[in-house]
Amino acid sequence: MSIMTWFNTALGWLPEFFDGFLVTLALVAMCLPAALACGMVLVLIRLSKTAAVWVPTYFVIEFLRNVPTFLLILVVYYGAPLLGSRLDGIYCAAIAIAIQHTAYLAEVFRGGVSAVPATQWDAGRSIGLQPSGVFFRVVLPQAAIKVLPAIGNQIVVLIKDTSLVAGIGVVDLTLSGKLVMERTAASYEVFIVIAVFYLVLTTATSSLFHWLEVRSRKRS
Fold it and tell me: Percent of the chain beyond pLDDT 90?
């Protein structure tokens, strides 16, 4: 098959790929805000000085970080009906991916907070801020700048993890490619196009965080 013939054939697949791409984007849109918000809450608990609070949180985070993502998707997908829930596969997958990346992001945030010098806490308290005010107005902004690259990397991993939802029948970008492959018998050609879709999405995400990192350094 010549390059032009392959290219013309690939153009005919684009509508199906685009539908799957929209599902992938929807998964990212559901998982990412939930993981960021819950990760922030989890790191606040993790930083507690009370052993009865931070020790269980530590083990929960380590468990979630070390369980395979696809296994967690299967647990939520097959476990939801046992709890009386009739969630669609896309929502079960979104919950599982968000839960796991909550644990990853909590550790990223914790690393950033730990990297902020203790003198910043003292400075915040010296101007009359309460501990919560010191954390959110002094420490957290500095920590966020320090961990921007790590957050960007984790979001790229989250985007790639959405491809695992094909295993439970959610017609995302990956599964749409598999369906086209089964119908056309074009294997590597299909997945080259799929790889380009993922590459565009992950490269755009990495570039955005690189720009944010450069901008934040200039402002600081």
Answer: 44
How many domains does the chain divide into? 1
Contact 38, 108 (CB under 8 A): no
Residue of 44, 17, 177 lying closest to 105 (CA atoms): 44
103 backbone dihedrals φ, ψ, rounded to 5°: -65, -45
Q: Which runs of consecutive H residues, i.e. helices, occur in the chain? A: 3-46, 51-66, 69-79, 89-115, 118-126, 131-134, 140-146, 148-161, 173-184, 188-219
The CATH number of the domain holding residue 34 is 1.10.3720.10
pLDDT-based confidence at residue 61 (cuts at 50, 70, 90)? very high
Measured between alpha carbons, how far is 74 from 48 in angstroms, rounded to an integer?
32
- Residue 132, pLDDT > 80, answer no
Question: For 172-210, how does the pLDDT look when each residue is reduced to its tens digit (9 = 90+)?
Answer: 999 988 888 877 766 677 888 888 889 999 999 999 998
Domain that holds residue 55: 3-219
Q: How far is CA 38 from CA 34, 70, 98, in A?
A: 6, 20, 9
Q: Using alpha carbons, select from 60, 46, 131 the residue that is nearest to residue 99.
A: 60
Residue 65: the pLDDT is: 92
